Amino acid sequence: MEILSEAHEALLTVVGKVPDGAWQNPTPCAQWTVTQVVQHAAGDQLAYVAQLTGGPKLDWDPFAPSGTLDVPAAVFVQRAVDASRAAWATVDTGAEAVPIPLPPFQAPYWLAVGACALDAGVHAWDIAVATGQLSPISNEMARSLLKAAEQIVEGVRAWGAYAEALTPPADSDDLAILLSYLGRDPKWTAA
């Protein structure tokens, strides 16, 4: 749970620091603005909630975010993170078959929680770099997220959830290796 808590905090922090005029900025997620990535990131957390609790599924597609929010982005994300935290608190940390919203649709606890953290963490990075913030992912966090990514990502690349892996730059740190594996250019900027 520590890695998920870190990823949630990263997401909440970067969303809370988005400057007023940056919500329509482009992001490393091709074709999506900052607001759309916020919607997607929150939607993915809620998809985990639905799987973990057996509760209702989303009535909107997080892979087709509208770019319009009815509440402030920070509130929208806080609600999703709170729901995610509450749902994960009900899961046995020793469980071998935790339901998740992506292939293989169930995984051991460590991998399930790591996949959820991966989603929150990488989208926190997307939002941060799109809005001129520092990366919220430390090298230590990147190493932990890469362990989950290596088990999950290949199964969802075909869905378009992640682009094809890139070759990391020669001077890559752990974060650059993770981002490259996820199909993101570690040196991406909004400029």
Automatic annotation (TrEMBL):
Coiled coil: none annotated. Residues 5-128 form the Mycothiol-dependent maleylpyruvate isomerase metal-binding domain. Gene3D superfamilies: dinb family like domain. One of its GO terms (molecular function) is metal ion binding. It comes from the Bacteria. Pfam families: MDMPI_N. This is Mycothiol-dependent maleylpyruvate isomerase metal-binding domain-containing protein. It comes from Rhizocola hellebori. The lineage of its organism: Bacteria, Bacillati, Actinomycetota, Actinomycetes, Micromonosporales.
